[in-house]
Design goal:
Blueprint (H helix, E strand, L loop, with lengths): L9 H33 L10 H29 L6 H24 L11 H28 L1 H4 L4
Helix pairs in contact: 1-2, 1-4, 2-3, 3-4
Amino acid sequence: MHDPATEVTTPALVELILARFHTTHRQELPELVTLSRWVETVHANDVNAPHGLAQALELVSVELEDHMRREEAFVFPALLDGEHAPSNNSFDHLRDDHAGQEAALNRIAAITHGFRLPSYACGSWRRLYAGLGKLAEDLDEHRYLEDDVLFPRFEAGRR
């Protein structure tokens, strides 16, 4: 199967990652944390409520922000410079971060019972789970573009 992302220039791909994912994560994650706090509070006595979700999302937010800042401050400028590309070790660390994000999403899926809503879920709870589904999809695509499209451009022949 042909993937059009592989034909995008490196500067365009970096810009896409920044605009589509970094900006979106920074906007949407705090909203999800706030909404999860609300749902946990309103449904505190409900065994089906996503107890612990706000704390899990806060951890994702902190770790993801640290990861994105490192990319923006060091990795992306080096990739765009072309002469000082990061070492394969740097890419390995970024992929480790991505694996940690995937593990965090798995914890969130467990807390939310696989993102399954009870039939009586209120509108806030429904919005929260819809937002979590979008976050999971966005993080998957974000990781794919970096791990499978962007980073390999600079790893070839360096292993």
